[in-house]
């Protein structure tokens, strides 16, 4: 099986020291001089990239790791010739076949970005197109800021800036999903809540033949979750910690803007997990190197709108390979100066008739952020109480332990 061992020990004060090596499971697909690294999101495995792997390489059959290096680089087809893309997808630490550290401090987007860089080193890829989804988009963003010389282009799907921005919008549907997610103990329960988390309601209610897509996807999800297993509590808590502690700093933004590669921010309009507002704001901060692609879909827009997402990724690869100018690439309006943004946020606006109106959108946004923080705090307290209650229950010992 293709595994690599990574050691993310560091002498830096802000990094956690990890004494044991972490194993990362990965797969490669296709052949070619154009390299693409796919980084999946929270609770996902490398298989979640299936539609993109097939769309980029033309196959979903993994390469045999034993002869991955058998082909000479000079013989590999190039993207300019209409093919030649090699893709690598892997399981993040805490999920799938990769190691599951037990400490939450061993999960940050910086540490997980180092996992991805170690994988690039193992593959012998000097540079690659880095595509990430959700938490994987946060990891990809951090990788781009940490090691811009390793990145040919950057795509972030259904991503936010981390921290409180990870909190979903507050409504009855989101609260219901959160409660069901916390209670899910079986593949069937998890599959049911995952469908409502990943896809738009409209998409799930469409008929495919004589059955609704929800029914077909439910069977597929139950089978997939049963095969890979439910994510462990340590893995889930760790990956949530990575999302919650993620920050896109001013230094990160400046680095991404000046690194010399293009960026694509792709998002589903009906995402109930990562709000489009924050994705668009991230794209605008990266002007002029970023392009915003919003599609009619949910959180897993890569599956709901496979053709559009694959085309957006291919457009990014082509634009990068042909060295397109950032101003020709971006579809975002030119950024206002920082003082103008502050003025628009705090100063009252004038109507055409001359009357004054207070900046209600600004106040509503601040109120919304307060409720997001409060909602996140409630979930955190709920999680601690659940763990405390579990620890008080007597342990039952069976004949065998697995």
Strand content: 5-15%
- Number of helices in the DSSP assignment: 15
Helix content: 40-55%
Summarize model confidence as the mean pLDDT: 84
- Biggest sheet details: 8 strands, mixed
The CATH class assignment of one domain is Alpha Beta
Write the CATH homologous superfamily of one domain: Alpha/Beta hydrolase fold, catalytic domain
Description:
This protein is α/β, with parallel strands linked by helices. It has a domain at 3-185 and 234-329: 3-Layer(aba) Sandwich (Rossmann fold). 44% of the residues lie in helices and 14% in strands. The protein is built from 15 helices and twelve strands. It has helices spanning 50-57, 109-123, 135-146, 172-183, 187-198, 201-205, 213-228, 233-245, 250-258, 276-285, 301-304, 306-321, 326-329, 338-346, 360-392, and strands spanning 3-6, 22-29, 34-39, 85-90, 128-133, 151-157, 207-208, 211-212, 262-268, 290-295, 349-350, 356-357. The strands form three sheets. The chain has an eight-stranded mixed sheet, sandwiched between helices. Strands 7-8 form a two-stranded antiparallel ribbon. A two-stranded antiparallel ribbon has the order 11-12. Helix 1 (50-57) links the parallel strand 3 and strand 4 (85-90). The longest helix has 33 residues, at 360-392. The radius of gyration is 22 Å and the shape is globular. The model is unreliable at 10-19, 66-74, 337-362 and 395-402 (pLDDT under 50). This is AB hydrolase-1 domain-containing protein. Keywords: Membrane, Transmembrane, Transmembrane helix. GO terms for molecular function: hydrolase activity. Pfam families: Abhydrolase_1.
